[in-house]
């Protein structure tokens, strides 16, 4: 049965912008965010980290549905360069370690700006998809005492040929089909969003990127989920997680591609709910 407090809060969302001060890794940033079930103040918090071309809008209603299933509040935000957040300046390239900077600097600064205290963070779950899954892994490794657990969906731990080939094909589609106009629904500056993601993944220097060593620092509960038909990565990604984090649970979904929340939402939600419930 659904938590009555969450049922009352489900229709309540609060959107806004958080102003983050400049640091050594970035200039001043304006971050688009949205609360889900905001008035359920006693519920644990789930923070959603979107994919490389994602945003608040591109998640659609999946975070809300999952929060209601888990009995949690939710925080969804668009990373810099995406959605309505500060766009990437044209001509500026993301550095090879851009995901580390997102986990180490941007997410903690956003939590600070939203006045999410340490006690609340210790009950917090991070839920990331694709690049967002990698950022969730890095956050869990960097701040093991500042979360309750992590859910990573189709994360990248190292760069595979299949990833680079698919991303190169996506660039061709962006420049020759209506993909650009479709993505423009989700980003204020669609070229900033697309080329920020595409250029770094196709940068030859990025082929050496890996976070496999960092994974050994993860202490909190972790579930990694991957579809067998993912054209952006193979099962080697989450198998590497299991080798580095022995307590991690793996879920491998049949008839599912790179976006399980769209391809197999019921199976995905069942897997996440079962894992989170087992930790309580």
From TrEMBL:
Keyword Lyase: yes
EC number of this enzyme: 4.2.99.20
Single Gene Ontology MF annotation: 2-succinyl-6-hydroxy-2,4-cyclohexadiene-1-carboxylate synthase activity
Sequence ranges assigned to domain AB hydrolase-1 in this UniProt record: 47-271
One Pfam short name: Abhydrolase_6
GO CC terms in record: membrane
Annotated keywords: Lyase
InterPro entries (alphabetical): AB_hydrolase_1 (IPR000073), AB_hydrolase_fold (IPR029058), AB_hydrolase_sf (IPR050266)
Entry annotated with the keyword Heme: no
Highest taxon of source: Bacteria
SUPFAM superfamilies xrefs: alpha/beta-Hydrolases
Name the record gives this protein: 2-succinyl-6-hydroxy-2, 4-cyclohexadiene-1-carboxylate synthase
